[in-house]
Specification:
The complex is a heterodimer of chains A (348) and B (265). Chain A has 348 residues and is of the alpha+beta class. Chain A has helices at residues 41-49, 91-101, 106-119, 135-148, 165-181, 194-200, 218-223, 228-233, and strands at residues 3-12, 15-25, 30-34, 56-61, 64-65, 76-80, 153-157, 186-191, 203-208, 211-216, 238-244, 248-251, 254-257, 268-273, 279-280, 285-296, 300-307, 310-317, 328-333, 338-342. Chain B is mainly alpha-helical. Chain B is 78% helix and 0% strand. The longest helix of chain B is centred in the first third of the chain and has 33 residues, at 59-91. The two termini of chain B are 25 Å apart. In chain B, 35% of the residues are buried. Classes of the chains: A alpha+beta (348), B mainly alpha (265).
């Protein structure tokens, strides 16, 4: 079953926290809502769950308009950051909770609880209390509890942000596996972590300041972002203010080759280049500047180079002989690796 | 502790004992001593006897103990039900309404209990609600007096309760009543038992409102203690007081046992 937001606006005391969101999640699709805190992504999820009432607009689950339904009649599985396992119940009773509330026959409850716990690898912990489990285990139980009711829609609200980095990547793989096992479940995944979104999502909706900025597959958003916010939030980017010329663009004095299709000659624009696509030395699009900062990150070096008053980041495979601070450095990038964006806020 | 030097620690302990012993411990010890005495004219009580306890555990006194226990248990259960209900309802209200509700429930504590007693006496002395002369007027007065405490401690617990539990339960398909009885109330259980214990203890010791209301066949223990000492039977009064103290502590201990079992974290 899909999810559809139809111009959903949410406001608290006249403060708009979600501004006319239009978004459709196809049945079986994993949609990540990606954005910084305060971008409205969690509000959007809570509007689907029924914990906030839109000031205007409608929320649909499949063909059903659920805007006016209370949460318990929506049939949605939900997992939140702080797990919210019921501390007074054993793991199995936590997982059985939704089934009991739906008056599922007792014999069926037992098999479905076992099935859900098995699916999340928590079968051996059925008799434990939540306080006896680690954070990662609690999160697995929370997922099992949400899956036991066999929802068509699963809402995940920053499900991994309370876990440490190592556990997080393990759980990410686990979530991907779960989705392969349950291909019909639509998942709305709220996160501020672009890695989680890029890894897990079929499509990413990028949100900022209560608005939807961009929506597309991870590859589209990464390779061909359509605005500056998306470019820098998904993957990080060099955003260079340029002027469009006949065959390329001009950054200060430097002429750079880039695809300028669709941009008027003489217009101001932003050239977006991913740091890992910038190389050191001579090349087709040359940028020369002074090295202002260099960071060694194990497998890579991150260089910050001041080019004509603009800071350019370059991620290079670990350098044998890195340049020193203040050295003049020449960088280059392939014309195909640059994306021309309409001028935005970064362009003063 | 804020005091670090050894000397200062001793000084603080000495001050604590100096204040605590005479104010809190000694009076209780004196009552305990007096309860075994027939005479107390020198420094220590004399004529040690258990006869006071024989008087304090049978007949009139036993009757009064039962009366007190029944009153206290009934009043605290009623107060707990009313206070919890009101606190849960208030949590769903807006901020301003909640304040009005809180103020209403604090009223019986803010007003002197003699006034509450008098008010109840006047209110229920005429038909259609003629309760004067029955045990119910005492129970109602106690309920009114202790509901404030039940309401207050339960509301505090509800504010601390993470809404995520309730929302998780609702998203799993539990209707509000199911959420209340299977999730919210069990999570509030530690506070509920604490509130019950507090209400019980307060009701066991209530005298001023009770004095104005109690019918002859429903005399709670504090009234009996007052009556004994008033007619000069200090030592019997002390023995009854010790019985009252022991009964209250016993119940509180039992309640706290339930509490430790009910706290999860």
């Amino acid at each position: 079953m899909g999810i559809r937001f139809d111009a959903v606006t949410v406001a608290y005391d006249g403060n708009v926290v979600l501004d006319a969101l239009d978004l459709t999640v196809a049945p079986g699709e994993v949609m990540a809502l990606l954005g910084p805190s305060g971008s409205g992504k969690t509000t959007a999820l809570r509007a689907v769950a029924g914990f906030v009432r839109p000031a205007s607009g409608r929320v649909f689950l499949g063909d059903r308009d659920v805007t006016d339904l209370p949460p318990h009649r929506r049939g949605i599985g939900m997992v939140v950051q702080q797990y919210a396992l019921f501390p007074h119940m054993r793991v199995e009773d936590n997982v059985a909770f939704g089934l009991k509330a739906r008056k599922v026959p007792r014999a069926e409850i037992r098999t479905r609880v076992a099935e859900a716990l098995e699916m999340t690898g928590m079968g051996a912990y059925a008799r434990r209390h939540p306080r006896e489990l680690s954070g990662g285990q609690q999160q697995r139980v929370a997922i099992a509890r949400a899956l036991a009711i066999r929802p068509d829609v699963l809402l995940l609200d920053e499900p991994l942000s309370a876990l440490d980095a190592q556990l997080r990547s393990g759980m990410l793989a686990e979530l991907a596996r779960l989705h392969r096992e349950l291909p019909d479940v639509s998942i709305l995944y709220v996160t501020h972590d672009q890695v989680e979104a890029l890894t897990l999502a079929d499509r990413i909706a990028v949100m900022d300041k209560a608005k939807l900025r961009a929506c597309g597959t991870p590859r589209e958003l990464y390779r061909a972002p359509t605005d500056e916010f998306t470019a820098s939030f998904v993957g990080g980017a060099n955003l260079l203010p340029v002027t469009v010329g006949a065959t390329g663009v001009r950054l200060g004095e430097a002429e750079l080759k880039a695809d300028t299709a669709g941009a008027a000659v003489g217009a101001r624009a932003t050239l977006c280049v991913r740091p890992h696509l910038v190389g050191l030395g001579e090349g087709p699009n040359r940028l020369t500047g002074t090295l202002s900062e260099i960071q060694w990150r194990g497998a890579t070096h991150r260089l910050y180079v001041e080019v004509d008053g603009h800071r350019v980041m370059a991620d290079l495979r670990e350098l044998r002989d890195p340049p020193g601070l203040g050295d003049e450095v020449t960088l280059h990038f392939a014309p195909d690796d640059a994306v021309l964006l309409p001028a935005g806020v970064g362009h003063d | 502790m804020l005091v670090h030097s050894r000397k200062a620690k001793w000084a603080v302990w000495a001050l604590f004992l100096l204040l605590f012993v005479p104010l809190f411990a000694l009076p209780l010890l004196v009552v305990l001593g007096a309860s075994f005495a027939t005479n107390w004219s020198s420094v220590l009580p004399s004529g040690l006897t258990a006869a006071n306890y024989q008087a304090a555990t049978r007949g009139e006194a036993l009757q009064a103990l039962t009366t007190s226990l029944v009153t206290a248990v009934t009043a605290s259960l009623l107060a707990l039900a009313a206070g919890t209900w009101a606190a849960l309802a208030a949590a769903a209200l807006g901020k301003r309404h909640r304040k009005v509700m809180d103020a209403l429930f604090v009223l019986p504590v803010a007003v002197p209990s003699v006034v509450v007693g008098l008010a109840i006496l006047v209110a229920f002395s005429q038909p259609p609600m003629l309760l004067n002369g029955t045990r119910w007027i005492v129970i109602i007065a106690h309920t009114v007096l202790v509901t404030a405490f039940a309401h207050q401690s339960v509301s505090a617990a509800i504010t601390r309760l993470d809404p995520a539990y309730e929302q998780a339960a609702a998203s799993l398909g539990a209707r509000p009543a199911h959420v209340l009885f299977r999730v919210k109330l069990p999570l509030l259980l530690p506070s509920l038992t604490a509130a019950a214990g507090l209400c019980f203890a307060l009701s066991m010791g209530e005298l001023s409102a009770t004095m104005m209301l109690y019918p002859p066949d429903w005399t709670p223990l504090p009234v009996l203690i007052y009556a004994s000492t008033d007619r000069g039977a200090l030592f019997t009064g002390s023995a009854i007081a010790v019985v009252l103290m022991a009964a209250t502590l016993l119940v509180l201990f039992a309640v706290s046992r339930i509490r430790t079992r009910a706290s999860y974290r």
